[in-house]
Structures are given as structure tokens and as C-alpha cells.
Amino acid sequence: MQVTFNEVQYNKQLITLGRESRGISQIELSKVLGLSQGKMSKIEHGLIALTIDELQDIARALDYPASFFQRNERVHGVGLSEFYHRKRQTVPQKVLNKIYAKLEARRMEIASLLKSIDLGEPNFPHMDPDKFNGDVAQIAQIVRANWLIPQGPIENVIEIIEEAGGIVVPFDFEESNIDAITVFHPNTPPLIFTNFNRSMDRIRFTLCHELGHIIMHRKPPSEETDIEDQADRFASEFLMPKSEISSSLSNVTIQKLASLKLFWKVSMAALLMRAAALGKINEGQNKYLWELLSKSGYRKKEPEELAPPKETPRLLDEIIKLHQTELNYSISDLSQVLNLNDSEFRTIYSQPNSHLRLVK
Q1: What's the rounded Cα separation, in Å, for the pair 19 and 151?
Q2: pLDDT 10s digits, 194-242
Q3: Residue 138 contacts by C-beta under 8 Å, 6 or more apart in sequence?
Q4: What b/e readout covers 173-186, taking b as 16+ CB neighbours within 10 angstroms?
Q5: Is the dihedral of CA 196, 349, 185, 174 positive or negative?
Q6: Which residues contact residue 50 at a Cβ distance below 8 angstroms, ignoring those fewer than 6 apart?
Q7: CB neighbours of 298 closer than 8 A, spacing ≥ 6?
């Protein structure tokens, strides 16, 4: 909601968002600006006017152009899947605030870019697990069939998600133990903000886990539902269909897990968990194999020579490139559209080749 005063217009929500995206507390910003915290608090609540000089002081302190704080846009939260993600409770709240603010800033930037681009309708059908009697594996099978994925391993997870209309966005999660967060709003395609400081097999599983959330979790689940477990089971079936992998998981050894990893492009740990989940090994065998993985150091880091080929997101880069080549946007133009300083735009966004269409 935008607040209008005689001196200058500003969006109080974006003052807070800009501050939190830089990891700065209200009292820290007030000291930098030479203001009392009380005045800074009133600014963030839209209770007092700002002169253009005061707004520019805030913009310089937070390294945004003044236009960042003058947009008439509502700030959104991250959504249901993040709200129910129990593991992230260990991340300090200040760090989470910074991550969430940066996510929302990126979402608004991407939404601005998409105004001129025709991505088509995203192909992510909603399938409530309750309507499938909790059979998450069946949902994963339906998605594979709907997307015409052939039998066997998925060669490139990022490619199939982006072909369906999702956008995979590399994102800095500030040293927190977060692999990805998906933001899915009605007027934008799913945005999967992904930590690429991970092994490729883990990234692939993470993306399929997030895909499970997109497909299955668009409304609040019942209290007893563990949506993280559902997303993990979806990812396991999506990457390693039971009907295709089950026979290969008999008589599992460490050597066999390594061989299967090369074929299925998932971690040895994921394969071992799949073997246990499908009842292909008993409890004793499972424990023994985990001990072997630990002794080999493979629970912390699996052999580099077994790593799947690197997968790279393309869609967001293509959107930027299309603005430059077809719409004749300069770096300065794009920075203005996204309400970023040129230097930050160059840091965040890159520009290879494009095959997208403009909105007609």
C-alpha cells in the first residue's frame, strides 16, 4: 500500500523490505541515517512524511535507487511450503528475514520482466494427496506421464521443469542450511530459488522435492500431514520409479550403489534409502551399508567421479537476453525496470542466448 505526502511518495512496506534484504536492523539503519529509532519506526509504518533528500539518503544507505521504495506494489510472503518447513526453524530469524526479503525482491523483479514475455501457461497440475488416498508415488507417476518423460533416469531435471514453465533461480542462502525455497503466486510461474553450492545429485533431488510441493501443496494440509515426507517420497518416485528400479536394488553393495548412481544420477544415500523404503533390504543390511558409507566418508561427500553432469538454468537468462536483443533494452534500462542499481543488476543477472517469444 502506497503512502502519499506533500513531500514525496513512498511505499512503507518496501522501506522495510529493502532494509531487511540488506540484513540491517531498524536501529542500525537509524544510526547510519542519523535518525532516532522512533522516527525510523514511524517511517516504516507510513506515519510521517519524507522529503526527497531523506528518501535518497535511505536509498544510498541501502544501495537501492530511490524508485525501489516508490513502487505501488504489495509485498508478499514466501508461501505455504516454506511455512511448514520444520527443518528451517534452526536458521536464525534475522537470517531468515534477510533471505525472505531478498526472495521477494527477486520475485518482483522477475514479475516485471515477464510483462513483455510469453512463457505460455505453466504446466503444473495440482494434485491433492488426500484425493489419491495419500499415494504420493501415483502422483509422481502421473506427472512423469503428463510431461512425456520416457522410462529410465531423468537426464536433465532443470530442463524439464523449465519446459513446463517453472523458473529455476540460483540464489545465495547466506550460509544457512537451506537447499531451496519455491515461490508460487497466481500471476507468476513457479520460481524455485535454489542453492547451487551443493552437489549436483543433491540439487536434482532438491528440485524434485520442490516440484512435489508445487504439485501437491497449494492449500494448508491437515495437522498430521508431514508435507516434507510427502515431497521426499514424490522426488524418490519421480527420479527412481519403483517399477523400473526395484529389481536393481536386490543384493545391494557399496559398489552396486556407485554403479546405480552413475545410471540414475542420484546420490548413493538416496539409492540406499530407496532400497530400504521398497523393502529390498532388511534393517540389518540397511544399518551395515550406512556404516560402510560412513567409514568411506561418503555420507559427507560422495566420489566426484560419480557426480551427474552439471545442469544449468537457462530460462531467466533467456528472458534477460530477449529484452536486450528484441526489445533493445540496455543494462541501464533493465536496471531501471527492476529498480536496481546497475552494479547490482550485473551481479545478479546474466545473459546467454534466447528462443523465447514476445507478448503480442
Answers
A1: 48
A2: 999 999 999 999 999 999 999 999 887 777 788 999 999 999 999 999 9
A3: 132
A4: beebebbbbbbbee
A5: positive
A6: 5, 7, 8, 10, 43, 58
A7: 254, 268, 269
Distance in angstroms (rounded) separating the CA atoms of residues 40 and 55: 12
Residue indicated by cell numbers 511518495: 9
Q: How far apart are CA 197 and CA 209, in angstroms?
A: 17
Question: What domains are there in the chain, each with its CATH number?
Answer: 1-75 (1.10.260.40), 76-239 (1.10.10.2910), 244-313 (no CATH), 314-358 (no CATH)
Q: Cell numbers of 299, please?
A: 555420507
Question: Cα–Cα distance between 222 and 230 in angstroms, integer?
Answer: 13
pLDDT at 106 over 60: yes
Specify the pLDDT at position 353: 41
Global pTM? Answer: 0.91
Q: How far apart are CA 102 and CA 94, in angstroms?
A: 12
Residue 131 CA neighbour count, 13 Å, CB half: 7
- The overall average pLDDT reported for the chain is 91
175 sits in the region (left: phi over 0; alpha: psi -120 to 50; else beta) called: left
